[in-house]
Amino acid sequence: MSAAAAGDGPWLDDAAGRLVRPFTVSNGRTRPSIALDLMSQVMATGVTPLGYLGPEHAQALDLCRAPVPVAELAAHLKLPAAVTKVLLSDLVDCGALTTKPPAYHHQPTDRALLEAVLDGLRRQL
């Protein structure tokens, strides 16, 4: 049985998988203190967090040197998105990360276009 060292990334065991349960990483918390969308961008501010943060916090902070979406961080950390959002909110709360909401380019829909689509669908039925 070979387990990875704490500094070598997620704690994994070849046979058993992750040795630390995901919600243990967030101290059992399931809700972040701030609203984060999966497409929200997070980036390190350069501020060093005070107090103890776990290895997953350090790994997340290291991955945030450039803006990165929450979903991508969850994939890199191999953690559920809900747990990743809690970790990221911890880092935002201590000033180590900044967030930017996703940029949705919402264009108002042309009513005439929608009516033409509806008419076309009605003709097909």
Protein architecture, described:
The termini are far apart. α2 (55-63) crosses α4 (81-93) and α3 packs across α4. The protein contains 5 helices and 5 strands. The protein has 125 residues and is an alpha+beta fold. A hairpin with a 3-residue loop joins β1 (12-13) and β2 (17-18). The strands form 2 sheets. The protein has a 3-stranded antiparallel beta sheet with strand order 4-3-5.
Overall 3D geometry?
A: elongated
Please report which band the strand proportion falls in: under 5%, 5-15%, 15-25%, 25-35%, 35-45% or over 45%. 5-15%
Biggest sheet layout: 3 strands, antiparallel
Q: Strand tally, please?
A: 5
Helix proportion: 25-40%
Oligomer: single chain
User: What is the string of helix and strand elements?
Assistant: EEHEHEHHEH
Question: Notable features of this structure?
Answer:
single chain; about 120 residues; alpha+beta; three-stranded antiparallel beta sheet; 5 helices; about 40% helix; about 10% strand; disordered N terminus
Topology:
Layout: E1 12-13, E2 17-18, H1 22-25, E3 41-44, H2 55-63, E4 68-69, H3 70-77, H4 81-93, E5 97-100, H5 111-124
Helix pairs in contact: 2-4, 3-4
Short structural description:
The protein is of the alpha+beta class. It has five helices and five strands; from the N terminus they run ββαβαβααβα.
